[in-house]
Amino acid sequence: MLSRFCLGDGIQDCVVKKDGTIITSYFDEGVFGNYGWDEPLGACGLIAWTSEGTPLWKNEKYSIYDCYAISLDEEENLWFYYYDEFRLVRTTFKEDLVFELPIEGSVWLNVDTDTNKITLFCIHRRTFEFDRRMKPHKLMCSEKHRYLLKTSFDRFDPVRHRYYPLSPYNGQLREGVKPDSANGWYPREDFADAEERATWFSPDKIWTNCGNKVLDVNIDAANVSESITPREYADLLFDGIGAALVFNFKRLKREEFDELKSKINWNMVESFPFPASFEEQQYIGDEGKIHVYSWDGRQETNLVGPYSVRDLYLDHFGKL
User: Fold this and answer.
1) Helices 230-248 and 254-261: crossing angle, nearest 10°?
2) The pTM of the whole model exceeds 0.85
3) Which residue in 77, 125, 170, 199 has its CB near the most CB atoms, within 10 A?
């Protein structure tokens, strides 16, 4: 091993020039992701490094939220194509040439100076509600990944629910408690208003599952029950989404989501039928069966069920 150094997280591509200069480009996780540093190493979207890991050049001109593709030509000029302006740029690292293209979206770039041919392999851009809601951050809008947000609700139990991560949605740590970046989870009593708080959020680091980028957040609240109202549910869900995003993306602040929350049409939320009829619900497993079984290594034996999810729901709530 000649040298060892950190180039950041969320690296999309890496190319090396003949003189040993290393060039790294970053997708949205590398640009916005929170992995313990105050400012992500890849926040600018594109960096050139020495072979010892010292930055030589950083993008300071272009709003790169996701650098889709890079390539070196025979003269070792760098070409790059990026979201969200969808421009193709050639840079000598001192001077730039910018091309406005009539396409949006590319995952591969090749430059052939002999034939003056530039090849972009393109895919159609997908749009997400988060993309429209959180401008100008342009988060969770990469065309290379599908983004999943998983939320779970549980009634807050002070005996079972003992530890929570540091989050603006969980309040501040009490005086004298030092932040622990290595652990990140704290006993509930370490939070300043723990005795009065009955709603807690447990966001997790974004992770990859079968090519999908997954954000998880658990919501523990005293009012979680089958009789929770649409407004209470929407209030918890909105804050849970905010907690997950703020936890993973440093540039987002709770204040932005609180401002958005103030614009919710609560009359519309409260107009939804409650409880909803089974036919109006869309949950994974609604058409499935619930059963408990034992397995002795050779044979499966049903202990409970199988019961239809639909039948169980209608038996409990009746035909709504």
Assistant:
1) 160
2) no
3) 170
Assigned token pair, 96: 């730039």
The full length of the chain comes to: 320
Q: What is the DSSP letter of 173?
A: B
Total Cβ atoms within 10 A of residue 40:
22
Q: pLDDT tens digits, residue range 149-182?
A: 888 899 999 999 999 999 999 999 999 888 875 5
For residues 15 and 77, give the distance between their C-alpha atoms in angstroms, rounded to a whole number.
12
How many Cα atoms are found within 13 Å in the side-chain-facing hemisphere of 317?
15
Number of helices (H) and strands (E), helices first, in the chain? 6, 18
Q: Which residues, other chains included, contact 283 with Cβ-Cβ below 8 Å and sequence gap of 6+?
A: none
pLDDT along the chain (320 residues), means of 10: 84 92 91 74 94 94 89 90 84 89 55 52 37 50 72 91 94 88 82 94 85 86 88 92 89 88 86 74 66 70 73 70
- Written as six digits, the tokens of 119 are 């090849």
Give the 3-state secondary structure of 75-141. CCCEEEEEECCCEEEEECCCCEEEEECCCCCCCEEEEECCCCEEEEECCCCCCCHHHHHCCCCCCCC
* Residues in a beta bridge with 246: none
Which position has the token pair 């740590």? 173
Round to whole Å and give the CA distance between 316 and 205: 36
User: Contact, 212 vs 146, CB < 8 A?
Assistant: yes
